[in-house]
Amino acid sequence: MGGVLIGFGIIGFVILVGWLLARFRIVDQEGRLVLNRTSFFAASPALLFTVLSEADVGLLFSSVLAVALVAFIAVALIYAVVARIWFTRDPSRIALAATATGYSNINNIGLPVAIYVIGDASFVGPMLLLQLLLLAPALLATLDILSAGRASVGRILTQPLRNPMLIASALGALVSALEIELPDPVLAPLEILGGAAVPLMLLAFGISLRGERPLQPGSGRKEVVLAVLLKSLIMPVVAFALARFAFGLDEQLVYACTVMAALPSAQNMYQYALRYDRATLITRDIVLLTTFGSLPVMLLIAWLLGPA
């Protein structure tokens, strides 16, 4: 448990530094975008490739993916049904918020959590592949159809190919599956570059928290509360039950599946909402509030299930 608290302390400290940089106007939101892009296009792909190229990905793909997918479907369906009955009939609004209810922030928070809390960054790869290869294209196709009456097939099919983190994860998994031994001159520069990934992510995330004001009047508060409860509380419970009882995984995998399910909603959801000009306030508040709510939930999970 002490190691878990240290891990959260490390994450929290770097996020706080990012927030202070924004608070004292040392780095503005444009600077945050530079940090994000540097991590997204260079450091994070290097880190994911080196980690997955040396990981036993076969075990993860057979179990973690199944738990994550079923847990996502469960909470997204609950949200969609409840929202459709009591809150709104707008299908785009429901699609975005339902996806945000189960779509986790793997890029900015998941990787640091996997490294410092679970102790194994290889859990990030399968979830990243699931979200970017299946869940994101499904949402984009739905929004394309609802907004334009038809889907851009080429855009949907090529969308995963434009994500460097996904490409690096797939290549790393391939190297591992084929048992290819990479020479040190190849791995060394990638390891150096990958070492910058987590600090850049957390600093950028801390900067992004400056000035956000959630749950403003007319922002769909009840819908946001429903999504936050499902993402922060129900999804980890569902993932735990699936991992422990349905799939019979060992304690470490049960712990990892439960922690990863408690991650906050991904910022991608807000970007998609802006792109289609649908449910922007709702998705923004879901991302923000699940980010704050995920910390105590993950601490509780670590206390109950984590290593001593």
Automatic annotation (TrEMBL):
It comes from the Bacteria. Keywords: Cell membrane, Membrane, Transmembrane, Transmembrane helix, Transport. Gene3D superfamilies: 1.20.1530.20. It is found in: Cell membrane. The keyword Transport applies. InterPro entries: Mem_transp_PIN-like, Na+/solute_symporter_sf. The chain crosses the membrane at residues 6-22, 34-53, 59-82, 94-118, 124-149, 161-180, 192-212, 224-247, 253-274, 286-305. It is a multi-pass membrane protein. Coiled coil: none annotated. Signal peptide: none annotated. GO terms for biological process: transmembrane transport. One of its GO terms (cellular component) is plasma membrane. The keyword Acetylation does not apply. Belongs to the auxin efflux carrier (TC 2.A.69) family. This is Transporter.
